[in-house]
Amino acid sequence: MSGLTDAGVRVISAKRKKGETQTVKLREWSLRLRVVVERAKRDRQLASIYLFPNRRSQAYSKSGWTSVWQDAMYAYIGRFDPEIAHEFETKRKREAAQRRGEAATNVELKLVDHPAYFALSDVRPAAITAKLENRDVDAYDFAAHANPSTTHKHYDRLKVKRASATE
After folding, report:
1. Ranges under pLDDT 50 in the chain
2. Any bridge partners for residue 27, and if so which?
């Protein structure tokens, strides 16, 4: 929550070498980002220093956040695919049975094989590629790598490499 500013969302990069100064990333507000943040603040059940806290007002563990993401993808894809919506309902019933201590049957999940499914780790590369494709002047600042070659090495997924003529 402390990273929310009038200018946008401020994040301090976690990756840095010993003695290296910290890199601060500022994501300026877009309408979509503002809506997501406002909705997250509005829907919180407990006071927390985190924008997206778990049930104990703490940061999510990796597996906890993965579970939240999977449920979000089920809700998203389930809106237009009845088979995935049914799979989600079956998954929720199985998890409820497990919480009650009942034996639950294992169900094969097809969510991650769905063509509309995307992992959270796909979001940043897609955003950086879009910036590079649009030739946005802030593409390298957006990626926030110390060296632009790192951006190209790991995130440039352009299908066609384009350049302007010299004359």
Report:
1. none
2. 9
Report the alpha-carbon angle 32-35-38, nearest 5.
150
Judgement on whether residues 128 and 156 belong to the same structural domain of the protein: yes
Please tell me the predicted confidence (pLDDT) of residue 159: 67
**Rounded Cα–Cα distance for residues 151 and 130 (Å):** 13
Give the separation between CA 26 and CA 95, rounded to whole angstroms. 39
Q: Give exposure, 3-22, as e/b (b: 16+ Cβ within 10 Å).
A: eeeeebbeeeeeeeeeeeee
β-partners of residue 8 are 28
Whether residues 67 and 55 share a domain: the answer is no
Q: Which domain holds residue 33?
A: 1-59
If asked whether residues 108 and 141 sit together in one domain, one would say: no
* Distance (Å, whole) CA 158 – CA 118: 18
Same domain, yes or no, for 44 and 75? no
pLDDT of residue 45: 83
What is the value of pTM for the model shown?
A: 0.71
Residues 117 and 77 sit within 8 Å (Cβ to Cβ): yes
